[in-house]
Amino acid sequence: MKAQWFNSVDQIGEAKWQEAIGETRYPFAQFAFHQALEQSKSIGDGTGWYPEYLLVMDDDDSPLAIAPTYLKTHSQGEFVFDWSWADAYQRYGMRYFPKRIWAIPFSPVTGLRIFSHLDPKGDDDEFSHLYPALAELMTQANQERAFSSWHLLFTKPEHAALFAPNKDLLHRISCQFHWFNRDYKDMEDYLSHFSSRKRKTARKERDKVAKEGITLTRTIGKDLTTADIDFFYLCYQSTYAKRGQQGYLTREFFGQLAKNMGDQILLVQAFRGDEAIAASWCFFDDHSLYGRYWGCMEEVDCLHFEACYYQGIEFCLEKGLQHFDPGTQGEHKIARGFEPVFSHSIHYIAHEGFREAIGNFCEEEAQAVREYHQDTHALLPFKQES
């Protein structure tokens, strides 16, 4: 077995990439996703994101697996926040950037971080040894270039556990809120599992949007028009503009995805009459819906909940999907039935002194996260088991 670094998906080639990943439907493993990031210039020169893909091959050069990594000159678009770590380095006159992240750009969704036809679902114990093995290659590559650190973000919990024997690696946890399909027949059946008061609140939220004369549509990516994508992108950028920022991703990125990954994209749009006023863009595979980007041109009470959560849940129920990962943060998700889950990241800090200090921080932070995780269970809307 051997491995080689590439700084463009086109250097690997679609045929070899798809041979490596095999039958996995995980949207963020697809060649088309990473090619769209590069070709749309959402990553690359001037963005602070510089791809370095690690291709693992058998001795006969047949592709076995791919790990996506990126050299970063800032910490934006990662959602596992290390700003204070970078500040500490700067205060001591040391360089934190560039660093390496092992992650999916702009995507705080838990999932595979090694894409392989040997383990398309990421649940094969015999394959999992590749995670610590590739981590050693990451460390070696970092040491050769004197990088401060590498960071494995939003990895699956069972993969995070594989790194426990290596005391030089730091394990960090945070809390997200995910929805799980407990064999619900439809939306009415799902809401019937809420307590009476919480069920009334949820229905009132949905009714409030309907009484405003707003209708919502769900469209699969391959059926999107240029006008649909243009409007969505206007909404996407408006979300950042309200914070005085600009969205990381370009219009070309979304257009290319709709063209090349259209069967794994869902666009929810809200209309007042014939006029579109809001949109939410998601990805999906055979198991999960991944909620991603949202924006609105008109503020309407409860529309965010409807477009980003209730519509997604309905889609999962219609398609038989078992899980809805709506991304990071947001306690408001709890009242809509999204349950607290831990997310996991692994960090290699080259400097021994900083490694110890950051390790202590991660331990203290983890205690607070566990308490928060426990407390949020009490806020879930479901009926109490008798």
| End-to-end Cα distance | 54 Å
Secondary structure: number of strands = 13
Computed structural class: alpha+beta
Number of continuous helical runs: 12
Pfam families: FemAB_like (PF04339)
InterPro entries: Acyl_CoA_acyltransferase, FemAB-like
Protein name: N-acetyltransferase
Organism: Marinomonas foliarum
Q: Could you please describe the fold and organization of this structure?
A:
The longest helix is centred in the C-terminal third of the chain and has 26 residues. β9 and β10 form a beta hairpin. The model has no long low-confidence stretch (mean pLDDT 96). With 386 residues, the protein is of the alpha+beta class. α9 crosses α10. Helices cover 36% and strands 25% of the residues. Strands 1, 2, 3, 4, 5, 6, 7, 8, 9, 10, 11, 12 and 13 form a 13-stranded mixed sheet that branches.
Relevant terms:
386 residues, 25% strand, Acyl_CoA_acyltransferase, N-acetyltransferase, FemAB-like
Give a quick summary of the entry.
It comes from Marinomonas foliarum. With 386 residues, this protein is of the alpha+beta class.
Secondary structure blueprint with pairings:
Blueprint: E1 2-6, H1 9-12, H2 14-21, H3 31-39, E2 49-57, E3 63-72, H4 83-91, E4 99-102, E5 115-116, H5 130-145, E6 149-155, H6 157-160, E7 169-180, H7 187-191, H8 196-211, E8 214-220, H9 226-241, H10 251-260, E9 265-272, E10 275-284, E11 288-296, H11 303-319, E12 323-325, E13 339-349, H12 352-377
Parallel strand pairs: 4-6, 11-12
Antiparallel strand pairs: 1-2, 2-3, 3-4, 3-5, 6-13, 7-12, 7-13, 8-9, 9-10, 10-11
Helix pairs in contact: 3-10, 9-10
